Amino acid sequence: MIDDETKKRIYALCNKPVALGGWLGLPYEDEGCLKFAMKFFAEMGIETTKEAMKEARNFIKVEQPQFGDIAVFHGVQFIGGGFHLGVMLDYRKCIQCIPQTNGVGKIDISRPVWDSSLKGFYRHKQLMENG
Questions:
Q1: What pTM was estimated for this model as a whole?
Q2: Is residue 15 included in any domain, yes or no?
Q3: How many domains does the chain have?
Q4: For residue 116, what are the domain limits?
Q5: Cα separations in angstroms, 89 against 23, 47, 80, 81, 104
Q6: Helix (H, G, I), strand (E, B) or coil at 91
Q7: Does 130 reside within a domain?
Q8: What stretches in the chain show pLDDT beneath 70?
């Protein structure tokens, strides 16, 4: 579970451009979606690796997304059709990193392309209600 102060701090980072100290517009780099998710989790105090996220180690599939859950996409054509992930900010907005959003940007997973490519939501064990 994540405390309200941490969540508030992360929301502020997610809503502020990089020029003002936030995350929006951080440049894309190879495996950017994974690297950004690791940064997000580190800000929550959760250490994870790219491999752990790819293999869903320490993550449990959930039906209803909430803050901090990973959204997994596969087959998004305009980003090459492969694997992609983002971190949920609420039940339908997610923050992620791809060149097409100029690096870190927010998306609405209910919009076309994203909705048809969504494969599931995964919650880190440290974010589970019962620990």
A1: 0.93
A2: yes
A3: 1
A4: 4-125
A5: 13, 19, 24, 24, 13
A6: coil
A7: no
A8: 129-131
